[in-house]
Amino acid sequence: MKTHWFAPHTAYTMAKYGMSMCTLGHAGEFKKYGIGVNSLWPRTAIATAAMQMIPGVDIKLCRKPEILSDAAYLILTSPGSTTGNFFIDDELLASHGVTDLEKYSVTPGTKNFIPDFFVD
Prior knowledge:
CATH superfamily: NAD(P)-binding Rossmann-like Domain
Number of strands: 2
CATH class: Alpha Beta
CATH topology: Rossmann fold
């Protein structure tokens, strides 16, 4: 826990930490039933309606939501029981051979995306 995660957006940070605790708790609780519980985090800001409501956010420097749906598909279709993980979208895609992420750019050619709040 570090101040820089909480200071500018305490409520949002608390929600993310709560989600993380639920992931770990539910993963442990439901493992005996063969139910996997994982979290999926974006590496960059995602162009959503919520982001458009934040003053000063340049949506052109975001990725499309499809990066998360494609990553979630890989989690949901993975063989065996994977549980208790915190996946990051681009790392998960790369581990499955998807390294060209250009199709997920709101603006083709973007290199300096807005980073997600919680991924160093």
